[in-house]
Write a structure and sequence with these properties.
single chain; Immunoglobulin-like; seven-stranded mixed sheet; mainly beta; 2 helices
């Protein structure tokens, strides 16, 4: 009986050690926050969660920039009631410094006083919307593509995830999620055909132009030929995000490796878009 108890204790101790080893985790990597954010100052009662009819109140919030570029544009505030009720409506200019770290640079804005004047609004909710409109949100992505020579016709694939595309891909709100690189070696030549299938994704907010389209797209394989780009699916318009959260394009080129067995080509992608993000908060009118 004693031997059984000793054996059980040993097994319990060993399983406990293995369990603790299995649960050991490395400190998580710092996660990039994307684009810009808006935080209402509810802790300062701006806005209050409840407000009486014919009582003044203010609305304050921080607009935070997590991009490394300076951003400019406009800040708007409005609600779901018309002017006849004494509604919330105002605006000012947006000017945000670039952020080289992870905390974000912020602009604090305060609007008011506002006052709801119609007693018909008593016991109703007011939805207050804060909106940041950025004139131009630039994205620059730097990576590289290794092209290898083969003595016969062959195809090889390489997947570049967002983490391999640098900070720009990781924290822009509308950005490249991944790139699939397809290489086709032409037989008995030093020529290689490259197809880059580029997957764009919207992580929040929207492109603030009529077509909801990314602007000024440029892709360059340093030391190689220029790319020919088009929508991956014929039914899609090129880099248009209207009614959808993603877009895919294919960019094709060819390179001549000469006498080299392989070569690493720097890949640089630039694009931009006017950007809009909004946040809403609901307060009770009493």
């Amino acid at each position: 009986m004693k031997k059984v108890l000793v054996l059980l204790l040993i097994l319990f101790f060993v399983s406990g050690c293995l369990g603790s080893l299995g649960n050991t985790q490395q400190p998580p990597d710092v996660a990039y926050k994307r684009g810009i954010d808006i935080n209402f100052k509810t802790s300062e009662n701006q806005p209050p969660m409840q407000i009486g009819v014919n009582r003044d109140f203010y609305v304050s919030f921080d607009v935070i920039n997590y991009a490394k570029y300076e951003l400019s544009g406009n800040i708007l505030i409005y609600d779901n009631w018309g002017e006849e009720y004494g509604n919330v409506q105002d605006g000012t200019s947006l000017s945000l410094e670039g952020e080289s770290g992870f905390i974000g640079k912020k602009q604090t804005v305060s609007f008011g006083p506002f006052r709801y004047t119609d007693k018909k609004l008593a016991n109703k909710n007011s939805n207050i919307i804060a909106e940041a409109d950025v004139d131009n949100y630039p994205v620059e992505i730097d990576s590289s593509v290794r092209v290898k020579k083969s003595g016969s016709s062959m195809s090889s694939n390489l997947l570049l995830q967002a983490g391999m595309l640098g900070r720009e891909a990781s924290n822009a709100p509308i950005t490249i999620d991944k790139i699939e690189v397809n290489q086709i070696n032409l037989p008995n030549t030093n020529d290689v055909n490259l197809d880059l299938i580029i997957y764009f994704k919207n992580y929040g907010g929207q492109i603030n132009n009529d077509d909801k389209k990314i602007e000024n797209f440029n892709i360059d394989l340093i030391g190689g030929n220029s790319f020919d780009c088009k929508s991956y699916n014929e039914k899609d318009k090129f880099l248009v995000f209207k009614d959808k959260k993603d877009a895919t394009i294919i960019c094709s080129t060819s390179v001549d490796l000469g006498e080299q067995e392989y070569r690493d080509y720097p890949l640089k992608i630039k694009f931009s878009y006017p950007y809009k993000i909004s946040k809403e908060i609901s307060i009770k009118i009493i």
